[in-house]
Amino acid sequence: MPTPAERELHQDTLDRLDRFSFWTDSNFRIPFTSFRFGLSPLIGLVPGIGDFIGLVLSLYVLREARRVKASRRVQLRMIGNMLIEFFGGLIPVIGDAFDAIYKANTRNTELLRVWLHEQLETTPKKPFPWWTLIWLSALIAGIPILLVIILL
Fold first, then answer.
1. How many domains does the chain have?
2. How sure is the predictor about 129, in pLDDT bands with cuts at 50, 70 and 90?
């Protein structure tokens, strides 16, 4: 079970990442629609280096995941999301729209949120109840013997 200090660290991390994801992925809304986008696709519009800068910014979410010791699997999925957005963003014209839709920082923040909540709700594993297994097995094995004794 995480300590109160670890719980606070986890919550502070999520709060920071929620703000970061909001600014990079959904800060602006297109009028008369529910579609939102952030600074990341706008930075991606800069020819040559925009997508690279977006990738570097996305490393912040990965750094926070490492700081709270997220599992290797979660970190690899985050890297995959970052690379999908990076390479998708390199496609001329379509890539800029892809950046606005894919929202890797929001995806990665949600991956970390799910992992952290699993950690907070984890209870220590109970050892296997060997003695219960032995007694139940003996009881079940003894029933036919008891029936034979009673019926004779």
1. 1
2. confident
| The residue to which tokens 């606070």 are assigned | 8
Q: What is the torsion angle, in degrees rounded to the nearest 10, for the CA atoms of residue 45, residue 51, residue 53 and residue 55?
A: 140
**Span 132-143, average pLDDT:** 76
| Gap between the terminal Cα atoms of the chain | 56
- Structural domain of residue 103, as residue ranges? 4-151
Q: What is the pTM of this model?
A: 0.73
> pLDDT tens digit string along 21-54?
999 999 999 899 988 999 998 998 888 799 999 9
Six-digit token string for 120? 């907070």
- C-beta atoms surrounding 66 within 10 Å: 11
Task: Return all residues near 120 (Cβ < 8 A) that are at least 6 apart.
Answer: 2, 7, 10
Task: List 36's β-bridge partners, or say none.
Answer: 29
- What residues have CB less than 8 Å from 54, skipping those under 6 apart? 24, 40, 41, 43, 44, 85, 86, 89, 99
